[in-house]
Amino acid sequence: MPYFDAASSAPLHPVARQALLAALDEGWADPARLYREGRRARLLLDAAREAAADAVGARPDELTFTSSGTRALHDGIAGALAGRRRAGRHLVHSAVEHSAVLHAAAAHEAAGGTVAEIPVDRAGRVAPGAYAAALREAPGPTALACLQSANHEVGTRQPVAEAAAECAEAGVPLLVDAAQSLAWGPVPGDWSLLTASAHKWGGPSGVGLLAVRKGVRFAPQGPADERESGRAPGFENIPAVVAAAASLRAVREEAAAEAERLRELVDRIRARVPRLVPDVEVVGDPERRLPHLVTFSCLYVDGEALLHELDRAGFSVSSGSSCTSGTLTPSHVLRAMGVLSEGNVRVSLPLGTAEEDVERFLAVLPDVVRGVRGRLGAPERAEEATAASAGSASGGPGAGGPGAGDSGGEEAELLVDSLGKLCPIPVIELAKVIGDVPVGGLVTVLADDEAARLDIPAWCAMRGHTYEGERPADRGTAYRVRRRA
Description:
Layout: H1 14-26, H2 36-56, E1 63-66, H3 69-83, E2 90-94, H4 99-110, E3 114-118, H5 130-136, E4 142-148, H6 160-170, E5 174-177, E6 193-197, E7 208-212, H7 238-276, E8 280-283, E9 293-298, H8 303-312, H9 332-337, E10 344-348, H10 355-376, H11 381-384, E11 399-400, E12 413-417, H12 425-433, E13 442-447, H13 452-463, E14 466-472, E15 477-482
Parallel strand pairs: 2-3, 2-4, 4-5, 5-6, 12-13
Antiparallel strand pairs: 1-7, 6-7, 8-9, 9-10, 11-12, 13-15, 14-15
């Protein structure tokens, strides 16, 4: 069964497995002890630190092993903010950071700090000069800025080197979350702190990296501990650390060849999915992106149903759609980008993915999407485009309200009540009735699913209609669409 979710967790690399098994026999003792077994464990730990630091582009004494990438982010942000408390209490981050950064920012704000979020464009990328502008406009001195090297949901690479230069000019340290990109190469630029997670590159879970450059003010939070320079308390998991460092070195040796091969497979998916499946939006930067990751969203598709059907067809993929998360709130990444969240599919290919598996995915996908759309009663494209006679406004089930069918010189308007209905039903109901108003007429959709705030404007952009905006309603929100096509 092809596994296409390496961005969540990559399969354990063979080198990681070998190193883990060997270190279980050799690295079980306390590396702080002076007897033979302790010295052997210390040698393994020091060698792993040197290898990981070399891959990161840091000194060994700048690198700390943590219990996870999330722990590294939380500790890195908390330590940097505490170390620079006298400089300021302002935190800056992009709108598409990993949720761990957003949670850390929320905790900082709850403790009395201030936070600024930098927007991204429709490809998910921070604009050049955005960090410089945010630092200039800050309400007070900035303690820390955060920027991921590449996005975990859509693969867009961020201008880290430029942002680091802007932060350095302002005297502000930049923390880079390199979890998704570190397998493909070191992070460029003069960053100050860096975090990563071993299970993203094929190492074992439970190992994170935190690099803090010399000269960066840093105050570890929590009770003091003698291990890992006081930055990660507790007994080191030496076998896992050894396996993480060994696998990082191994994937780096394979990175150039695999990046070229996987990029070609991803380019194939990016180009062919919109041709094979109608009404698809491929999201993320088409060029400045990770080589192994592609994300697309399908109109009129329930994301959870789509993932289940792909799983039944033998493919493991993931999604940022609200329909797959047990919440009415779409992915904060898709929301920040302003792209379609319906039927969102993220394909992230692990090292060694076979070409025939990608071809079989492309062969299976159209029928899977067609079947999900059919069960939801989604309109056929030809039916959706059918125009009513000029000046008419007749409603179907769930349609009506003030202005519907009015021919007394007032603007034709149709009301669609989608309250209590989850994505993608509000958009499906809009598509079914848009032809019932004349060109220039309005359809107002009442919806209380947060995903409608993204998906109705995205549908308008894909269909050539005009999104007139939203307004509060007695229940939910009223979204207004003017028919143009």
